[in-house]
Amino acid sequence: MVQQVSKNVNNWIDKNNQNKVTKKPIFIYFTGHGILNERNSDNNALMLWNNTPVTVAKLSNTLNKLPQDSHIVTMMAQCFSGSFANYIYENGDPNKPLTKQTRCGFFATIKTLPSVGCTPEVNEADYKDYSSSFFAGLSGVSRMGQKVDSADYNKDGRVSYSEAHGFAKVDEKTTDLPVSTSEVLLQQKASEEDINQLLNTPIIDLEKLANPQQKYVLNSLVKLLGFDEQKSYLETLENINPYQKTTQVEQAYRIRLLMELLNVRMEQKIRQSNNQEEIAILERLIDCESSSWK
């Protein structure tokens, strides 16, 4: 079975390379099992049949067989999927340069945590996972065929992948901590000083720096959590009764809010820097994430 999958992938790549028609962007969706590489969480793996792993490095190198002008977007829902944000680098190694191909992606959770996508539920109405929320935001319809609020937050007439990602951060009522390639990059660059500054900055001040999708996420999570946007994240937490019981989902929402504030803070910091290389890399990832099916 695994050999057949590899053969099918290679056949698809060969067919794609032979296609002389204007190439369309490639969208790769994986839902299944993932495993943590305890020696190097930057190179986790997704699992095929017969428990055969495909590491970040393996995926990155396999995609190198496609033309250099390929535009590739991934969406992955497996456990420890955030590690696959590294597929944008040569050999899947974050210490190496970006590949020549345009690559970006969206992941159910960070590289060190399991996701809730592996569910024993047999009733589709009970499914609560990142991919269900992501595709609902992207299409405007839930997996049960019900219309959902539009995720076109910048009002440009289309829903981008990044907007669907923002929709999922609020819609998905689970313990997942969704991330994108640009967000992983931003969070990795944050210093202790950066984190301390944002913890003590009024939330509303960071909201003013956010793009439409980020504003939606920040405003929605602030309301869901009952936070005061006039106060800082840390001040709000300090005013919460320590004996007040919170659910695991609420705790996840708090972390998602903190992560979103950090994304806004670090994006602004990079844009205001004189490091043209870092600015170019960030712009490249954001442009890719802002693409869409339409």
Report on the structure:
This is Caspase domain-containing protein. The protein has 294 residues and is α/β, with parallel strands linked by helices. Strand 3 and strand 4 form a beta hairpin. The strands form 2 sheets. A 4-stranded mixed β-sheet has the order 1-5-6-7. A 3-stranded antiparallel β-sheet has the order 2-3-4. It has 11 helices and 7 strands. The chain has one domain.
Give a quick set of tags describing it.
3-stranded antiparallel β-sheet, Caspase domain-containing protein, 294 residues, alpha/beta
Beta-strand residue fraction: 5-15%
Spatial separation of the terminal alpha carbons: 34 Å
Would you count the extended β strands for me?
A: 7
Q: What value does the average pLDDT take?
A: 91
Lay out the secondary structure.
Blueprint lengths: L1 H17 L7 E5 L3 E2 L9 E4 L3 E4 H8 L7 E6 L25 E6 L22 H10 L21 H11 L7 E2 H8 L3 H8 L3 H5 L4 H14 L7 H6 L9 H24 L4 H14 L5
Parallel strand pairs: 1-5, 5-6
Antiparallel strand pairs: 2-3, 3-4, 6-7
Helix pairs in contact: 3-4, 4-8, 5-11, 6-10, 8-10
Structure summary:
The protein has 294 residues and is α/β, with parallel strands linked by helices.
